[in-house]
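Cross-posting from the modeling subforum.

Setting up a comparison between two proteins and wanted a second pair of eyes on the formatting. Protein 1 (sequence, then structure tokens):
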Amino acid sequence: MIKKYKKKNGTIAYMFKAYLGIDPVTGKKKYTTKRGFKSPQEAKKAYNRLMVQVEENDVVTNSQRLFSELADEWFEQYKNTVRESTYVAQKLAYKKHIFPLFGNLKISRISIPYCQKQVNHWYSYYKKYSNLIGLTSSVFKYALSLRLIRSNPMDAVIRPKRKKQIDEERYSAPYYEKEELLEFLEIAKNYPDPIYPIFRILAFTGLRKGELLALRWKDIDFEKSTLSVKQTLATCDKWEIKFQVPKTEKSLRTISIDSETLQVIKRWQLKQKEYFLKMGIKPTKNGEQLLFVSEENKPLYLDYVNHNLKIIINENNLKRITPHGFRHTHCSLLFESGASLKEVQVRLGHTDIKTTMDIYTHVTKKQTEETANRFADFMSSTEEKQGSLQKVKSMVKSEKKQTIPIR
């Protein structure tokens, strides 16, 4: 157990080799060797301390395993707990933002100061930096469960906080005012189908792009003028696209469609039928045919909307906006038209009314100006009334002075 050995400089020192148990990952026996003790007693004390740690299932060795190895194992478990699209999004975030900084480091050597440095770095450029902290922390928790580290260094980091003025800009992402939206849609009419129908529906229903691209003809009720959201299109592992049930119950909804948008949809349905007939394509039966598909009648990729939106904006020098910006636009204009909070929440499928209220408080420029103008008009009308009344009083006084009393 305790052995004496001679160092390179000729001095005598003591060492020990200790059995640490079975590695839970490899199934092999684990040993550790400690050297450099000045006396047998010092080596014995160190050995006893180590054995206490082993009995308490504490960290038994400086693990040589890399962060990336444990991350891969954790993701395999995580995959079974969330929707595939969520798993893919988180894996992409890990590969892009976490792996370059942590992947090749030994899990046991990653310190709190190092983690703090990376958290500050994420904060400097990435809005969803808290998500990266959570993902990284989950890998450390996994390592902790395997007794490879003593503690989770991410638990000790100080999370930077966004300044208040930045928080207030949460919903200041680009969106269109009424006039800007109408201009965009008028321009979109000049582009090949189905560009205009796609953006008309986005703008006049507030659908998410995944919900839009998952619409089937059976989801449109032409008699009742309604549209039902029953599924969503998502990008999954290996860039596959799949149909999924929306995340929440509130996302499953049926909403009304205005008559003009309904006519746009009807005209597009006719054009799609004509194209299928011309190309010899058989539509999917039982109403399962999608509204928007590729030339081979395959579901469109989510980037199809983004790509065509960029083309329209760049070619016509329009204000930049994302597909989700049309949802924000629809929401804002609904409030401007007089819709209630509850009506907007149901129409957009918001689970939490706070989401609706956050957009509600972000009033459009026109509303802000109108509020000031209404107040000014009110005050002006009051001043005019008071001015007219004052004139009448003055005239009455003047007449009284000019009247000769009858005696």
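Protein 2 (same layout):
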Amino acid sequence: MPSVPYSLRVWFIIHFIVDVIFAIPLLFFPVFMLNLLGFALVEPITARLVGAALLGIGGSSLITQCAGKESFKSLLTLKIIWSLGAIIGLLLSIYEKVAPPSTWLFLGLFGLFLGVWVYYYRLRLQ
């Protein structure tokens, strides 16, 4: 069984960093963070749940660094589903014209990560 590519391990660390950058403010300062990002309607409980999800998924990226191929494949499956769900939600919000301009940043980030996760899942870990 081939080992996990070093580059995928690096992507998992990058993913952890990006998730934590957004997770901590959403957990502890949701109103400030959502106002900063241009959201007109601020609901702190939902923002904190998103922060918790980001922290959990990003944290698992860091914890998995010493794991084997099967653990990485399982997490990639989770990350692919999470990214697709987020992209669908963001696109629906853009279509309904209820999304602030910062939504495009999140759409780009989720799209980038989705591309990376699918690449490694399909081409590198088979």
